[in-house]
């Protein structure tokens, strides 16, 4: 921690409210002159990989190296060699603050979405749910609106922002491409985002996730979190696998948020979530018929693996599962 202190101070010096991408950033940053100087002093180091600091500290203990790799992986999806110091500096300082506790949104993650909706409406916007977008409308090389599955058209005043992945966004633009409404340069760019052929500069399909979301009977279980019955935990099956923390079906992250916030489950019940953090090879599932027995068997195997991690702390969890 001593080595990370200058970086941690720099990473936490500026409030996120001061960070902007428009020219107004100059005005907000100048409100924090000392903090800005502290951050700039460590600017280059904050952008370097955390793996460099591990090498500098000459960490030899294999478990410690694997543990730090795991922390990096859980925070950013990459081991230490690919995780910026800024990420680890900020989080290590936060984790080791005196009296630190686990932050959890009251009402679950849904309450975050509800807060965002309130913010949108506060400034005159509206949020439409269950509105399937069928097409992005393009006129004169400009996205001008969207067409919903029911045929309704919503016109854009300035622009259309898609937070769908490149595959879906390409699909939503397919009619505009066929009509020749999109410049070839824009088409080439969108196509490059879904190119998985490494030989032509594409990005290969990344590893994926497998999840369990379940409700269980809480009879006989503790009603408060503790070291023996945590609300959140990680299970690592093998610290020394060939791919380390990125080994398939090795790390499982589990949480039982209703142990912290009872409003998330009916009385006498708990909600559980378990998943592997982007370590499931896409090739294992690619091209499988989702109605086939082979697919169903593979899902059962995946579920068994996840249940076994849950049952490290929740006895007979799978037998406690309740129907929706």
Task: Describe, in plain words, how this protein is organized in 3D.
With 324 residues, this protein is an alpha+beta fold. Helix content is 36%, strand content 13%. The strands form two sheets. The chain has a four-stranded antiparallel β-sheet with strand order 4-7-6-5. Strand 2 (142-148) and strand 3 form a beta hairpin. Helix 1 (5-13) crosses helix 3 (33-41). It is globular, with a radius of gyration of 24 Å. The model has no long low-confidence stretch (mean pLDDT 88).
In short:
This protein has helices at residues 5-13, 25-29, 33-41, 43-47, 50-56, 62-76, 85-95, 110-122, 166-172, 174-178, 184-193, 293-310, 317-320; strands spanning 133-139, 142-148, 153-155, 211-217, 232-236, 251-255, 269-275. By secondary structure, the chain is α+β, with helices and mostly antiparallel strands.
């Amino acid at each position: 921690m001593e080595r990370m202190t200058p970086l941690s101070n720099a990473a936490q010096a500026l409030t996120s409210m001061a960070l902007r991408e428009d020219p107004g950033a100059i005005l907000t940053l100048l409100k924090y002159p000392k903090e800005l100087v502290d951050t700039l002093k460590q600017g280059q180091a904050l952008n370097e990989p955390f793996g460099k600091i591990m090498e500098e500290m000459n960490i030899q203990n294999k478990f410690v190296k694997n543990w730090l790799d795991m922390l990096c992986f859980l925070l950013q999806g990459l081991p230490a060699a690919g995780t910026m110091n800024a990420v680890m500096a900020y989080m290590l300082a936060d984790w080791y603050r005196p009296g630190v506790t686990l932050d959890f949104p009251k009402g679950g993650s849904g309450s975050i979405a509800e807060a965002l909706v309130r913010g949108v409406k506060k400034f005159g916007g509206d949020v439409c749910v269950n509105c399937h977008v069928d097409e992005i409308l393009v006129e004169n090389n400009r996205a001008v609106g969207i067409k919903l599955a029911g045929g309704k058209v919503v016109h854009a005043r300035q622009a259309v922002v898609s937070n769908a992945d490149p595959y879906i966004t390409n699909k939503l633009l397919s009619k505009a491409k066929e009509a020749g409404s999109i410049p070839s340069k824009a088409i080439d760019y969108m196509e490059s985002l879904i190119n998985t052929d490494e030989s032509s500069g594409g990005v290969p399909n990344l590893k994926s996730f497998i999840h369990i979301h379940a409700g269980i009977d809480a009879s006989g279980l503790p009603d408060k979190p503790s070291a023996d019955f945590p609300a959140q935990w990680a299970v690592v099956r093998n610290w020394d696998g060939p791919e380390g923390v990125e080994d398939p079906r090795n790390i499982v992250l589990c949480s039982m948020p209703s142990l912290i916030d009872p409003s998330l489950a009916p009385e006498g019940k708990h909600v559980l979530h378990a998943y592997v953090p982007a370590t499931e090879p896409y090739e294992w599932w690619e091209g499988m018929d989702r109605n086939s027995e082979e697919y169903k068997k593979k899902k059962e195997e995946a579920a068994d693996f996840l249940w076994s991690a849950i049952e490290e702390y929740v006895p007979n969890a799978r037998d406690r599962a309740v129907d929706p």
